Amino acid sequence: MSSSLGTLFRISTFGESHCKAVGVVIDGCPPGLSLTEEDIQPQLDRRRPGQSALTTDRQEADQVTILSGTENGRTLGTPIALQVANRDHRPADYSNMRDIPRPSHADYTYQMKYGIRASSGGGRSSARETIGTVASGAVAAKVLKEKYNIDIIAWVSSVGEIDATDIDSETITSADIDKSIVRCPDSNATARITALVTELKDLGDSVGGTVSCVIRNVPPGLGEPTYEKLEAKLAQTMLAIPATKGFEVGSGFAGSRMRGSQHNDPFIKKNNRLGTVTNNSGGIQGGISNGESITMRIGFKPPATISLPQDTVDFSGEPAVLEAKGRHDPCVVPRAVPIVEGMAALVILDMALLQESRMALQFL
Amino acid sequence: MSSSLGTLFRISTFGESHCKAVGVVIDGCPPGLSLTEEDIQPQLDRRRPGQSALTTDRQEADQVTILSGTENGRTLGTPIALQVANRDHRPADYSNMRDIPRPSHADYTYQMKYGIRASSGGGRSSARETIGTVASGAVAAKVLKEKYNIDIIAWVSSVGEIDATDIDSETITSADIDKSIVRCPDSNATARITALVTELKDLGDSVGGTVSCVIRNVPPGLGEPTYEKLEAKLAQTMLAIPATKGFEVGSGFAGSRMRGSQHNDPFIKKNNRLGTVTNNSGGIQGGISNGESITMRIGFKPPATISLPQDTVDFSGEPAVLEAKGRHDPCVVPRAVPIVEGMAALVILDMALLQESRMALQFL
Amino acid sequence: MSSSLGTLFRISTFGESHCKAVGVVIDGCPPGLSLTEEDIQPQLDRRRPGQSALTTDRQEADQVTILSGTENGRTLGTPIALQVANRDHRPADYSNMRDIPRPSHADYTYQMKYGIRASSGGGRSSARETIGTVASGAVAAKVLKEKYNIDIIAWVSSVGEIDATDIDSETITSADIDKSIVRCPDSNATARITALVTELKDLGDSVGGTVSCVIRNVPPGLGEPTYEKLEAKLAQTMLAIPATKGFEVGSGFAGSRMRGSQHNDPFIKKNNRLGTVTNNSGGIQGGISNGESITMRIGFKPPATISLPQDTVDFSGEPAVLEAKGRHDPCVVPRAVPIVEGMAALVILDMALLQESRMALQFL
Amino acid sequence: MSSSLGTLFRISTFGESHCKAVGVVIDGCPPGLSLTEEDIQPQLDRRRPGQSALTTDRQEADQVTILSGTENGRTLGTPIALQVANRDHRPADYSNMRDIPRPSHADYTYQMKYGIRASSGGGRSSARETIGTVASGAVAAKVLKEKYNIDIIAWVSSVGEIDATDIDSETITSADIDKSIVRCPDSNATARITALVTELKDLGDSVGGTVSCVIRNVPPGLGEPTYEKLEAKLAQTMLAIPATKGFEVGSGFAGSRMRGSQHNDPFIKKNNRLGTVTNNSGGIQGGISNGESITMRIGFKPPATISLPQDTVDFSGEPAVLEAKGRHDPCVVPRAVPIVEGMAALVILDMALLQESRMALQFL
User: Fold this and answer.
1) Is D363 in Cβ contact with A359 (below 8 Å)?
2) CA nearest A114: which of B218, C354, B270, B357?
3) pLDDT value, residue D91
4) How many residue pairs from chains B and D have C-beta atoms closer than 8 A?
5) What is the pLDDT of residue A92?
């Protein structure tokens, strides 16, 4: 179990779907930051279940409480514990899944790993686990905004076969994105996605999608080669989000089909630094930010828990048909948007702290 | 700088392209393992420059020496230091690049991060840095083979627009792969790739590609949710390889276009455990191995150093034309195969050691 | 801020003296362990303020709640969050200390380190921070007892000039110790210590002391040379307890005055293993447990907060007289006993998990 | 095996007594530092065997080579690998110790831990392992001197019953110390210690001692509560030195006998900061440096390897008499001086880097 992330801005999360509370402890938050629950709640609201007709019907207000680490609305530099209560459990919904591991879910692997598993709600593999990421990510994002003017913005770039088009990552805003019920800033695509997800929810099926993310105003120099290159840490954290199957930075897999003479980003002078004409690099060269916007895309599979009947076997290997009950999302990507932003913020702030230390003691 | 990887099988690498030596220290290798240089050299030979007409002309024998941690050909459980000398430097080749950062290379970002950089050879961003990964990965792979019969096999699955087809990841062997000069087990694709790379080398251009990898016979239970899920650590390490732009596990981005009812992998009984009928999960569910083969694909951009003239600017922002000298690969994926295998071995062994500890003290 | 400890049994603590709650998250607890609040509360009761006339008058029940990581009284192998509310704050007691840093306390250094500090109660430097150690240590001790039959027993071995005598570390029990109001198993010394502490409490002064600890039934092989030798990790954790000034293992400083021919512990056959005739080594040789009892001693300074007037200066450097209010212990060692035991348990279990992993994959 | 230390200035050591080489990789050294072998060699010379008639007769020049991480005498910010060859092995000296574990040495515990051990020379438990600490510590000390003017000075404060007296830790210099063949700046004590050690060397016996250390000019604010308090990390690293049995900071165990009213260090104004009148705190309050000199003392047992006959048992438990051959120190403390200094430098620099990062991003 490794529920911790980061070297200098280090978080440790806890909580199952159906225990008393989920939360996170942040160790290493810069002291003196103005911080109250109001700074954190909006991102949790974007993540919470039941926020629209297209998400799971589980209702959780997901109100966060700061237990420690602040006084009079300022951080003390000490560990900040954030907690959200679990309220709307319905363990009975899981009774028929006690004996039958859900295909492509974590029931079987958790049982094999730990020899025991939470009897309901997915335990630690539940999306509720991401509350810690989102809450601590909101704190990290606030530091990044105030100290570096960094913006981290994610959106739904595809659902199933439906792709958003004409998104300008240099100008897109969170307001643009939240206008869409599915957090897709292409209104035409939004309409088609809404129709598709509604249909699948009724059918008891699910669908995958992708989330794109841009990080703007990142100073050059972030990233710790060789094993903690900036894209390596982003890839790790994005693939730590439930249901992810792929990660691309900059040109991504499309770049693998190109020639160097096409793909290279020529340098130009931009204000008082060097910039690049194109951004196939996605803002990262040699594992280190170059000052251009960091761009990435994350692929999510369709949620594994569907109510359509599935031919499978039970834990003892006997054939069984599973019709999952419980309240589940037909498509996770709209709710994944704040999770992606949270992961990005956690990585960027940790890397910024590492680089600040280096710059403070360099001999130049 | 984070040149270390792993919790229990922990490696720390060192060395620039043009310093005295490159190498790695392994801390946590199981004691009593039979180990000599002969166990490590073959993978270094698959990685070394100058191994074929299609790679860089730099000639390095890359002979490894075990400095510590073994006695009479057995590991002592103490740190194993592995070292490879650098011999064929030609710093003069880099003289015209002192002032002009190579587009899409690490020259600019290293300078911004450290305020100083190796004046020749790419320093730590050079592919020579991967020697430590490959050497320590060979040790990890030996442990995995002897203790679990795990096979880790990577191959070139595309170069530019040319895709290998009809590869069966359940039966492919390293011998199949090494028959191909470009490590692509599809002979038709090999011929086309060879022609393409030869042409680009003559032109002074470069091209990207993808490497696929399968890990067979992985026991269920490996992977440490939530931030060190198995696919998360694989994604991190693969994106830590120079020139990588994307990572997919199992169905990957294609899975993001599917319905849950198509994508879910039904369970069936396989011998004395549960297996799955399909493997869209790529051998991992909930961040934990499920006993099926782990499958993944990594995208590499075209090498940034090309000898074609490039319009760019120098460090001071003045327009300049760069025609890179030095000896560089027109396509890195054939030499990336042992690096991908090394990263995979390092991750899997570390996760196996973590799980062994858990199983030893569980209360069941 | 590093409020985390351990590699495989990893804890992260949080909480100031006067915030909403203090607590700890345990990551890596073996799954399947029977665990409820009743397993943890007794050690917290031994640590809590107000437990006797000789301790601070602050009254805190220190009732622990398990928020996550268990189901039906069994651990799931997932993070276990433990929480204790803060109730009996009296911030007003600290009003005269806002401007005057207490001599030998952490007021000044916290202010210098963080540029801000908790305005009352000592914040994170308060002894309340040790609740996380004690609570998680109780969980670790339970695992150690059930898996290895390990006993960890600490006691007060001196207060001021008064030394306990005739303690047999091989047979002493917690019951023996808890018979004494000051946790000193020598009844004669107990009487003298009680009189001394009572007198000092009335005077508004304080006094130091030492705690001794034995760990019995430790298997050979624990400890991770070279930087995480067993005594090194014990020294680190003991010196992380507030008010500690010294650490000894085995013969300690007295051993520095001896000859090798006196100090060496000859081996003898004990049952089916080797043991030693004497135990100057304190159960550790070369940083690794040898199977004999581990013995150590920890020195505590007198508490810094005293109500006697002290001539000092305020934060601006102006002369001032400080007469501390608040409720403080005249002597911390009786309450330090469960803290020492907790630290020892955390170290030993982490080292045991590391060694189990090694043994599981050794080639012998 | 944990042969790594540090978070931001991180070292990883390797090497047994009788393998090809010993060394260390430093990850995180500030870039741009002027660094050549000449900066490192003097401390290795103070540590090397054979340096005087009072140490082991093993002759090793211990010449260090920088393999990586510098160019033109400046650090690049990349890993610095330092290496020292082993030359004067005499494995035959150990033939009679193959079957008989040396009392109070690591032969038995290494065998129990790893199931295998180096057949000669003590392997990793040999004092040769400390070369990595000393070499990397010399680099750390150079950074600390140039950036903060920090001085780290250790000396022999006792051998057996002979105590050095009248040492002023505020003014003592390395030159004062190195005038003494036993690194004791009290000439009277030096004479008595020299006579004692000479006698014991002839007898084949050994003796313990203590090393004291002062760290001057440390800025306030270093140390990471709660588990990585400054004294906690110093205690860990000092107890990681072979043969250590005790650690004290400031008043140490003597402080445990004092009253608060005696022990507290009143604040006074010193230049533009607060200082303290006395220094029972040893420069650390609440785990954080307060700007006063850090003072500590470390106790070493007598070396375990003596040539006097010892009644013991062999590995199978059969009675045996051991008369150790090989070349061993009768007293380790003179050679321990640079090791203590190295450990101190490694801790202080790591803590300084952590604090620089915090200060760079604080909101004040």
Assistant:
1) no
2) B357
3) 66
4) 158
5) 67
Q: CA distances (Å), B117 to each of A222, B113, B132, C218, D136, in order?
A: 15, 9, 20, 50, 22
C201: CB partners within 8 A, 6+ apart: C54, C330
Per-residue model confidence as pLDDT tens digits over C45-68 = 999 988 888 877 777 889 999 999
* Per-residue confidence band for B1, with pLDDT thresholds at 50, 70 and 90: low
Hey, is A116 helix, strand or coil?
coil
The reply to whether residue D76 touches residue B118, judged by beta carbons under 8 angstroms, is yes
CB-count burial class (<10 Å; 0-12, 13-18, 19+) for A187: exposed
Residues A114, C74: C-beta atoms closer than 8 Å: no
C 60-119 residues with CB below 8 A of A?
65-72, 74-81, 83, 113-119
- Measure CA D294 to chain center: 16
Q: What share of chain C is helix, strand, coil (3-state, %, to 5)?
A: 30, 25, 45
CB nearest to B364's CB, from C32, C143, C146: C32
Cβ contact C234:C281 at 8 Å: no
Q: Which residues of A touch C71 (CB under 8 A)?
A: 16, 19, 118-119
Q: What secondary structure letter does DSSP report for A14?
A: E
DSSP assignments along C68-93, one per residue: SSEETTEE-SS-EEEEEE-----GGG
What the block records as the tokens of B230 is: 């198995």
Write the pLDDT tens digit of every residue in B151-204.
999 999 999 999 999 999 999 999 999 999 999 999 999 999 999 999 999 999
Domain boundaries, chain C: 4-360
**B280–A104 C-beta distance less than 8 A:** yes
Is the Cβ pair B360, C358 closer than 8 Å?
no
Is D307's Cβ below 8 Å from some Cβ in C? no
Inter-chain touch C15–A79, beta carbons under 8 Å: yes
**Tens digit of each residue's pLDDT (9 = 90 or more) over D250-259:** 999 999 999 9
CB contact under 8 A, C78 and A14: yes
Q: Does the predicted interface ipTM exceed a cut of 0.90?
A: yes
Look up residue C358 and give its two tokens.
């090694």
Q: With helix as H, strand as E and coil as C, how does chain D read?
A: CECEECCCCEEEEECCCCCCEEEEEEECCCCCCECCHHHHHHHHHHHCCCCCCCCCCCCCCCCEEECCCEECCEECCCCEEEEEECCCCCHHHHHHHCCCCCCCCCHHHHHHHHCCCCCCCCHHHCHHHHHHHHHHHHHHHHHHHHHHCCEEEEEEEEECCEECCCCCCCCCCHHHHHCCCCCCCCHHHHHHHHHHHHHHHHHCCCECEEEEEEEECCCCCCCECECECHHHHHHHHHHCCCCEEEEEECCHHHHCCCEHHHHCCCEEEECCEEEECCCCCCCEECCEECCCCEEEEEEECCCCCCCCCEEEECCCCCEEEECCCCCCCCCCHHHHHHHHHHHHHHHHHHHHHHHHHHHHHCCC
pTM: 0.98
CA torsion D335-D339-D344-D349 (nearest 10°) is 140
What CATH code is assigned to C4-360?
A: 3.60.150.10
Rounded Cα distance between B267 and D260, Å, is 69
What is the distance between the alpha carbons of residues C22 and A67, in angstroms, rounded to a whole number? 8
Q: What's the gap between Cα C213 and its chain centre?
A: 10
**Number of CB atoms found within 10 A of residue B19's CB:** 26
Chain-centre distance of CA C119, in angstroms? 26
Tokens linked to D188: 């009277």
Q: What is the CATH number of domain A4-361?
A: 3.60.150.10
Across the interface, of A209, A210, A225, the residue whose CB is closest to B124 is: A225
Q: Is D280 on the interface with C (CB under 8 A)?
A: yes
C-alpha triplet A67, A70, A71: angle, nearest 5°: 115
